[in-house]
Records
---
Amino acid sequence: MSGTAGVAIRAVGLERSFDDVQAVRGIDLAVAEGEIYGFLGPNGAGKSTVVRMLCTLLAPTAGTAEVAGYDVARNADEVRLRIGVALQDAALDDKQSGREVLLLQAQLYGLTKSEAQIRLEEVSHILEMDAIDRMIDTYSGGMKRRLDLAAALMHNPDVLFLDEPTTGLDPTSRNAVWEEVRRLNQDLNMTIFLTTQYLEEADQLADRVGIINSGLLAAEGTPDDLKRSVGQDVVVVTVAGDPAAAVAAVSGLDVVDHVDANSRTDRGRPIGELVVSVTDGPKSVSPVAVALDAANVEVRDLTLRAPTLDDVFFELTGGRIGNESSEPEVVR
């Protein structure tokens, strides 16, 4: 056994290439035992590739990684015994019941029948009460994600990898997963490596956050530290119609550092949203409002707020996390 005491996940110079595409270009990570680590990045940045290397599903092209004290390349079997993994696409057999899936998982990890029954009772609360004996083809998408999480926990892993565990879930199911993640971390001191496309999720759950961009770790720190690093208040403006006129109206103001805009529809009507980074929040609201009024822009809402993780993400990657290119990650 190697590695450093107190470190659950360590990567040094971790790289992965696919033919002539370098998806991960030298990642250094150190995740402490008992930590929830949030991992963010645009589509195609290398998030899932990093997770698959740490879970032994992909071999690194260069560099090293250890999980639970074992090298992911040389000691892959030892790593697998100590981790739980819930990836984006749950590999579940629709013709099995939830109970059968969980007991099969226990069998694969060598648990005895009595041990499996104990663990089944301990993780079954993650599912709805009547779901465990139903066929999986009757499950909703949220129930399948929760079953996949329960299966990943059957062998009581030291480290849990969750790859976008709440994507596509309704708010109730998402909150249930959040509560379970908190419980696992607080009650069992379980180390959790969480990739997510929801910045609120990282802000709420993660002790530290790493942001990957173009295969490199662009920033790392606590959510509060990262937000302070941006150092700017923002004025959020909702306008009717195309936001182009609003962008033109405020972009030249001395108090404005930069403007990010996007469009959406509300009850079939076009709506524009501007996120205006300003040098002095309280003193900037009036000039922004006056400039919009002078340009005859119809303002629906205007608010001042402190920086968020979304602002950090934009500062580092040039895009909003829900608004980036749909180019898929290079994962094979």
---
Amino acid sequence: MHTDFDRCVRAARSKDPRFDGWFFIAVLTTRIYCRPSCPAVLPKDRNMSFYPSAAAAQQAGFRACKRCRPDASPGSPQWNERADVVARAMRLIADGTVDREGVPGLAARLGYSARQIERQLLAELGAGPLALARAQRAQTARVLIETSDLPMADVAFAAGFSSVRSFNETVRAVFALTPTGLRARAARGRPPATPGVLTLRLPFRTPFTPDNLLGHLAATAVPGVEEWREGAYHRTLRLPYGHGTVTLRPRPDHIACRIALSDQRDLAGAISRCRRLLDLDADPEAVDALLRTDPVLAPLIDKAPGRRVPRTVDAEELALRAVLGQQVSTAAARTLAARLVTAHGTPVETSGGLTHLFPSTEALAALDPASLAMPAGRRAAFTGLVAALADGGLDLGVGSDWTRTRARLAAMPGIGPWTADIIAMRGLGDPDAFLPTDLGVRRAAAGLGLPGTPGALTRHASAWRPWRAYAVQYLWSTDDHPSARMPAEP
């Protein structure tokens, strides 16, 4: 979109927040870059240029606006909607792959050379993987500076910088303030930071209806790993450097997020996973505009627009839980998962009812299949999935190739269409995954007068592409199942 100058100017002049994250405005006279919704007075058209990413604007010598904080705008929905190599690269960069493994590691995960990745990212985003990772490090540093009392040297290394000097230089270049100046500016009028806990806001594009999103997470929460308490969703996180816990609470214009980490280097990855879990980078206007063309869905959308797809912080965990939940009730699936967590999960010390990390595939690979209290067919499917994940034969990571992964799932014994589609929808993040055989979908379809058979329903749903996963959320919302509404407080 950034190449369409006239369209960008119109969006900028309208201060439309729907375009935040789609492109960035660079003001040539002040050398400042902003998000499209920035409330500041804009210059003449000839004094503006547009960039596809914050990293590209920073690389061109512009610093972030102190008023609208463009570096903290919602991510581009393209990286969740698309499955090409650029989108896969962006998901991996957001997950911290470049910081942990460098550009060669990123390229290896994608199956391309480092030069090819560099060329494709530059062509589309105006910045290579190092510049994109640097922009993310700057934003992570800003969060740590403003929300914690960590010494600046600790902030530098936790944010992924190789030295305090590069940390200082980057913060000055991006924010036009020293790290101590940034902390002093943020501290005015704010309560003191809680040691070990980071408090931040996760932005999203409106409209936003969280009922089915948080209702689903609460209804399927595995005891010990997840819980709904005091109007918020809580869960443990297994992360590359350690573990953490997160609390996510819906607010009218953001998600209030509290994160506690055993290793601060996991902050960027933890934020990325929370955003992915709640589908916060979605473009609800585009989704709802297409789905609303179906007269059956239109009333559902008008009633509660902006539904999101409940996703996951760990696709491997989601896949294993999907197999456990085959042909059983939600309550039975939670019970099976809770037993697995108690027997094989990693104990952690936290507050509330969070006691464990979900078991790793390495731990599950060592268990005795006979200890699994489930039918033989499902037991075989579960152990086969564990083996494929443990030996790398199945890749469910954020940079995975969706087509290849779905084909691999379809070929695995005991993984039927429903399970593969649930994994694609919630684990891989495919916005077009569809569940024509799901009981809740079929019940909703019958109540709305939609075709009753899976084949006929799939044909009807072709008009909903590429947003069929969101159509499923609207169909599920017609049910009286607890997962379709915001949890009630006890």
---
Amino acid sequence: MLRFDKVGWSPGGEAVLDGLDLSVTPGELVVMLGASGVGKTSVLRLSAGLIEPRAGTVANGFAATAMVFQEPRLMPWATALANVTLVLERIEPARRGEVAARWLRHLGFDDADMKKHPGQLSGGMRARVAVARAFATGADLILMDEPFVSLDLGLRRNLQVEVRRLAVETGVAVLFVTHDLTEAVSLADRIVVLAGRPAQVVADLRQTPPERISEVWEAAAALSVRPELASVVAGLGA
């Protein structure tokens, strides 16, 4: 389990987080929803151990953690296949290419696409390589920092479906941050709403993700009028 207990974070003396409580259990897909700049990325960095809290404790009890950033951060000199193979240190060398290829095929790559370098791939395909790389590591917690924010609506929707499917099939825990209400509704087992300055969790909502796009929009519209989300919805897209 990942657990935040009364966590504070104050870069440069400004309190970004204060008294933050949060948990992510094994196999759970949690979406943290909040306006841009509220502190969502700080939560991910604290979760990964990249920074230390000013106050409180962050306990990451998962065996291994992987992260997907807003930019895919692929190695430009390596093919799509090699970018995934690079993270497979736990697997014997003779099998790494086979395992990497299997994960890329899960995300729609054919053999020709696997041989392409990042500069030859579309934005959506680069994002798929980043997702494949994270899941291929064998991590049981994956942190995702608005990885589809630069893609158009259709590509975002397709990748949301893929991430949801992989999370369910593999049983990994995912903490996914976004400022997109419909993305949160379409992905999450739980939606954790972060708001305020310093930021705190103002709502923790368990839900069953809809399977049809019309239901996603309806659920997002219903969620947007809840009083505890008012401050967040007002800041979305800001």
